[in-house]
Amino acid sequence: MTTTPATASDSRTRTRLANQTWEATMLAHAVLMRRFTEQDVWEGLSVREYDVLYTLAKAESPLRLRDLGEGVLLSQPALSRLVDRLVQRGLVFRCTNPDDARAHQLSLTDDGAALQRQVGRAHGTAVAEAVTSALTEDEMRLLESLSLKLAGKEQS
């Protein structure tokens, strides 16, 4: 897949441009994720397991599985199995939801929080190196703004 930058004389239709923009975004994601996955920073975690720990670490309070799923790219059954493994490893704590005794809430254990911070520091350094080597500060701000806009989470 070859993409070229848009120019003022670009004759692509809006639909074609939108699809090529999406493809370029997904290509950038795939290339970066491959690079990050190959790094020796994960301490025995898969990238998906780290994603769950990171999402729980960002949460201000324990999350229901459904709420955790909004921040993680996994189906509910796959996420449930992954969470079970993290609970068994002592990285995630499952407790009864005080508002609904049939539901559970999830949070990090002390070990899970420590591991998330350790991996997060190394991964954050790798992300910063990859992004800052390719983009200016203005480009980073623009990419952040556009990405949040596409996600429906525009900053105010």
Model description:
This protein is mainly α and 156 residues long. The protein has 6 helices and 3 strands. It has helices spanning 14-38, 47-58, 65-70, 76-88, 110-134, 137-150; strands at residues 63-64, 92-97, 100-108. It has a 3-stranded antiparallel β-sheet. Strand 2 and strand 3 form a beta hairpin. Helix 2 packs across helix 5. The radius of gyration is 19 Å and the shape is globular. The two termini are 35 Å apart.
Compact overview of the structure:
This protein is mainly alpha-helical. The protein is built from 6 helices and 3 strands, in the order H-H-E-H-H-E-E-H-H.
Topology:
Blueprint lengths: L13 H25 L8 H12 L4 E2 H6 L5 H13 L3 E6 L2 E9 L1 H25 L2 H14 L6
Antiparallel strand pairs: 1-3, 2-3
H/E order of the elements? HHEHHEEHH
**Major β-sheet profile:** 3 strands, antiparallel
Q: Compute the CA-based radius of gyration.
A: 19 Å
What does the overall shape look like?
Answer: globular
Find the count of extended strands (DSSP E, 2+ residues).
3
Q: In which range does the helix fraction lie?
A: 55-70%
Secondary structure category? mainly alpha
Q: Can you give the mean pLDDT? A: 91
If helices are DSSP runs of H or I spanning 4 or more residues, what is the number of helices? 6
Strand proportion, as a percent range, falls in: 5-15%
In angstroms, what separates the terminal alpha carbons? 35 Å
Strand order of the largest sheet: 1-3-2
Task: State the low-pLDDT regions, or none.
Answer: none
